[in-house]
User: Fold these one by one.
Assistant:
Number 1:
Amino acid sequence: MRKNVTGYMFLLPWLIGFLCLAVGPIMASLYLSFTDYNLLERPVWSGWNNYRNIFTKDGSFTHSLGLTFKYVLLSVPLRLVFALAIAMVLNKGLKMLGIYRTIYYIPSLLGGSVAIAEVWKAIFAGNGIFNRFLSTFNIHAPDWISNPFYLIYSIIALSVWQFGSSMVIFLAGLKQIPNEIYEASNVDGVGKLRQFFQITLPLLSPVLFFNLVMNIISSFQVFTPGVVIGDGRGGPLQSTLFYALYLYQQGFSYFNMGYASALAWIMLVIIGIFTMVVFGTQKYWVFYGDEKGGKK
């Protein structure tokens, strides 16, 4: 213990922050999820009432959850496809690679901001830049923001545009694949498409697995586009009432903090289930290089 005390002292600031700013609030929210709490008065224990009301009486819960599922199922695959495609292009030994990498990464830094959401809202409005561009080709596009059917797809496009962080990780993974493998396959007459599915994807599968898990977790927590593009109320006909936005409304607009805490824990369980499912399937498609196939 005497030998390790220096290390523990260096860890102490992080441990204090972790216990006070993470573990403490998490445990507090678990307790509050079983109470009737309006932020102004002391919480009153109500047992399972919040959870019972969520699953049996709350139509907005099912709507926001279904909308979030749709967002995750569409945005995550598209973002990964775009990220991998751009990473493969950048991996061709382009000059000024650092500049291109920075340019493509910038949307990931700015895309979650309120300012970018406002810009996106202006671009895809009925008289926005995107529709004016399409009109030059005599294409009459709808109002992507006011139309509740199309609004979700404009937000998905914003999510796909933020592929930079996944792209950088894919690019790092591609750099680790030995070029000798591709040279040997060229000698054997293997085509580019076959190389991609039999060499690139298997050797890149651990990186793909990591990006998939992180993108699923972050996509379930989508919030800012629903607030800004949906004018803070979930858009027309609640077309942008994502789960995180509905949780926020319950906690800070309606002061139902106990109810919001229950919603938060339900989302935690849902994300955990999705993550466990992905982890459970990795033995079938993730190749770590220390065996002939699958997970070690």
Number 2:
Amino acid sequence: MFRNREDAAFQLAQRLKGRALRNALVLAIPRGGVVTGAVLARELGAELDLVLSRKLRAPMRPELAVGAVSEDGEVYFNQQAVALLEPTDEYIARERNYQLAEIARRKHLFRGVRAAATVEGRSIIVTDDGIATGSTMIGALRIFSGQNPHEVIVAAPVATPDRLEEIGRLCDEVVCLLSPADFLAVGQFYEDFSPVEDEEVVEILREFAPST
């Protein structure tokens, strides 16, 4: 059990310290992951930026994901969830457009604080405050195709065990503190899992924005 996102991220940072990272860049998934990413960046002396990826919500069950869409518009489908929940093509198209609109809104808001960082040749640490279905993280990892990072490390305080294998195939390493068999939701492993608002993300980005 973690006290809050900062406590979880500090523990996670201890697992990453001492590594020979190359010009390290922490890429956080908004919004909760940005709090985690800020602690990692501070503890590792790394740059902080965002990676924008949104889950595609299941019909009538928005807490579940049938896939994810990244900021470049690429869609990832969780085939097991699709087979189980059978969303229609019309529903998927509508949900994709909705999430792309939200990504565009966040990009306008957050990129006004800092421009996207360069990925090529760097040690990339992709983080979130937890991994449930894995769809958002997988969507985020697909963004790096063709960008030639030195390495990609996924770092999360807690994750459901059955998604770590697939995530591991899309990166060089996964660092995760907890992967319990009784996983139900990310929030169950936090004493304080309060929502993170856009304003907090903007303030964190301002704190870490490169000097011009």
